[in-house]
Amino acid sequence: MKKRLVKLKILVSIIGVALISCVLVLLVLSLAYRDNVQRFIYENIDHKKSSIQLWISNTMESALVAASNLSNSIEFIDAIKSKNINSITDYAESVKYKDILDYGLITDGEGNILLRTHDVENIGGNASEFEQVRLALDGEINSSITRGEGNTLRISSVVPVFDNDDVIVGTVTFGRSLDNILLSHTLKSLTDSDITIFDGIERLSSTLHFSSLYLLTDEIRNEIVQEVLQEGNEFKGELHLVNINVISVIYPLYGTSGDIEGMLLVGVTSDKVFTEVFNFTFRGSIVAAILLVLVIFLEIKISGSIDKKFTSMQETMMHREKLLEAVNRASILLLEIDETDEIKDPLVSSMVIIGNSMSCDHVHLWQAKTDENNSFRFVRNFSWVSDYAKSRTKAPKTITITNDSSKLDWMEKFLKGEYISGIISEMPQNYQDHLKPLHTKSITMIPVFLENQFWGMFTIDFINKETVFQESEVAIFRSISLMMANIVRRHDLQNENLKVYTDALTGIHNRRFFDKSMGRIISSLSRSGGELSLMMIDIDYFKKYNDTYGHGPGDECLIKVAGVLSDSVQRVDDFVARYGGEEFVAVLPNTGKEGAIAVAEKMLENIREANIEHKASEVSSHVTFSIGVTTGIVTQFHTIDNFLLSADDFLYKSKNDGRNRYTHGEIPEK
Questions:
Q1: Residue 117, Cβ neighbours under 10 Å: how many?
Q2: What domains appear along the chain, each with residue ranges and CATH number?
Q3: How far apart are CA 473 and CA 179, in angstroms?
Q4: How far apart (Å, rounded) are the C-alpha atoms in residues 599 and 614?
Q5: CA distance linking residue 23 with residue 25, whole number of Å
Q6: Which of 390-423 are b and which e, b meaning 16 or more Cβ less than 10 Å from the residue's Cβ?
């Protein structure tokens, strides 16, 4: 009996020590868990800020692409100049990103409003009082967040519209206008955090229930004003509001002028921290009470579970942070691409950043094309391949989905905006058959749409890893693939425009380029009082050349003469164009008599050295040409025809004087 009592006392003592140990351990773990939760929340808020910035950046980029597309349309420019409202409306609706942008504003060159679409605020008859429009009227493309009328904010991009004479005839604005309350709730749904937008220190809208920062103590409020509104820094801290505490990060908001106009609060209420800690403690207590004899084991297990949970959370956050950082870096590279830049290097560099951050093996951008049988053929435009994959695989240049692939539902999914992601060995057999040439173990394929039209797909794959991306990661990939596709499409349009101004036979500028450029050059030099020299060049006895050698060799002769003339002008602003038939023109801005004569003599010398045989010529055994050169100070009264007629007169004199020479003269004053 006594032994039993002793054992019972010992058992009670053990149980008591175990209980105290459990309580102490649970208390310590709860406090540690609370600190880690708060630290995780601050890190998570920083990541959510990147999501907000990416959302705003994508909205601005979409607005800029829509406005740029419209401003480059010749028909739209004519509609603005004629103020044809119906045509302007049709063209505006044809390019607007209806699922992203909800307003547009089009003005003439004086800032007078020609069109408002959808939900654009009524801002009066003239928009030049607004800084964005005023900058565009000065020739500057700009994007910004501005405060609209009433309780709204606008995210928009504005571009100037130039006519053929490089005169600004109007502006195009596209963007997204959100009520402040709607904006705060939109950002909350995007980040799963409470959002408050301030004008100064006064609240514009919030998902929290408080009226202004005046509810805080003077010390905290003054610290926020100094850190954020005056110095432009971030403020981190726990704010004690009415019946609620918020773990917050407050960021400055900048206006178009670059001044700090308000603040953005991103936060998580501390009751979430309390709930998480309470649930953790409560569950631990129940487990300890039920399995008291295994309390030591449970302590270790709970500690291990906590560590594992935090490790998993940290790994997830680090992975997402790494992806967001990579996409942000890639986006910066893409946004820095100028209209005249080659796009291959920055596009591939952005893929390198994404590929390395994901430790994947291939990143591809595919453009979809259809043939007469309505089969889809994906052409690989740009790619990145890891060093590991280079020696092991070679991706095909095209993937074709024919009408015979009716059981393959790729296009059905893609056209619905759905992506395909998974381990290839677990996919249907027809998927595996089409993906076999890629030699990968897992793949993610994301459809890309431009202007609501299916454009192609963005793919990421792994040779030896089984990786399936989460929905949030796919959303990030969608944004960067959209930017890449937009840049490719914009570059293709620019190349098409270049063909319009190039002579198909000789490869030099054509008559259309000459007319467009001369108008701009005369307009510019008339303001500065600069000199302009123009040459008219005609191949001597070219008809006899064609009659003797044939039209094929005649074309070859024109190509060689065009090369001789182009090599004879060295300055960046000088250019040669084919005027028609065997006639060429050379335009030399800011060039006086001596410079023009030097160029003419060099042309004659270079054509002699080219030694192109011409047996039928009456002045030489090789091809020659005659040149008429006119020079003068440009005034506002000069036109293209004045210079052409003057140069043509001197060309006529060169021919009358025996050809194979130049004649120079001054253009008549105006």
A1: 18
A2: 1-290 (3.30.450.20), 344-491 (3.30.450.40), 511-666 (3.30.70.270)
A3: 28
A4: 24
A5: 5
A6: eeebebeeebebeeebeebebbeebeeeebbbbe
> Crossing angle, helix 511-528 and helix 640-656, to 10 degrees?
110
pLDDT digits (tens, 9 = 90+) for 109-136: 888 888 876 544 444 578 877 788 888 8
Please give the distance of CA 595 from its chain centroid, rounded to a whole number: 44
Q: Using one digit for the tens of pLDDT, what is the confidence trace for 631-668? A: 999 998 899 999 999 999 999 999 999 999 999 999 98
Q: What is the pTM of this model?
A: 0.38
Specify the pLDDT at position 13: 60
> Taking the CA of residue 77 as centre, how many other CA atoms within 13 Å lie in the half-sphere pointing to its CB?
17
- State the amino acid at position 94 in one-letter form: S
pLDDT at 23 over 70: no
Task: Return d(Cα 530, Cα 591) in angstroms, integer.
Answer: 8
pLDDT at 123: 47
Computed on alpha carbons and rounded to an integer, the radius of gyration of the chain in Å comes to: 35
Token digits for 589? 């801005």
DSSP structure string for 398-466 = EEEE-GGGTT--HHHHHHTT--EEEEGGGS-HHHHHHHGGG--SEEEEEEEEETTEEEEEEEEEESS--
Q: What is the mean pLDDT of residues 535-552?
A: 94
